[in-house]
Amino acid sequence: MLYHQSATAWASDTAGATVGRALMQSDGDFVVLNGAGARQCSSNTGGSIGAFIVLKNNGAVVIYDANGAPLRSSPGIDSICQPVP
């Protein structure tokens, strides 16, 4: 979970999983991996080479494409990272 001023700004919705790390992959997909390296959630932005993630001063988390257009945001456009079945 990511908090901003005591409020939840973003959550991976992977309760019960041992989270290993969160990373922006070179293909533009933001993922959360468990301790074994298996995907727990994905932004589904793979193929957006050059995409980047920003934590804004207002607590919003936004994934932008290489040109600066928003792809996902929390809260907003779409969830940052949807659970992987």
> Mind summarizing the main beta sheet?
4 strands, antiparallel
Helices and strands, in order, run as: EEEEEEEEE
* Helix/strand structural class: mainly beta
How many angstroms does the end-to-end distance come to? 20 Å
How are the strands of the largest sheet arranged? 3-4-5-9
- At the fourth level of CATH, the homologous superfamily is Bulb-type lectin domain
Q: Which CATH-level-2 architecture? A: Orthogonal Prism
CATH level 3 topology: Agglutinin, subunit A
Annotation field: number of helices: 0
Silhouette: globular
CATH class: Mainly Beta
Description:
It is a single chain. The chain has no helices and 9 strands. It has 85 residues and is an all-beta fold. It has a single domain, classed as Agglutinin, subunit A (Orthogonal Prism), CATH 2.90.10.10. The strands form 3 sheets. The chain has a 4-stranded antiparallel β-sheet, with no helix packed on it. The mean pLDDT is 84.
Secondary-structure map with pairings?
Layout: E1 2-4, E2 7-10, E3 19-24, E4 30-34, E5 39-42, E6 52-55, E7 61-64, E8 70-74, E9 82-83
Antiparallel strand pairs: 1-2, 3-4, 4-5, 5-9, 6-7, 7-8
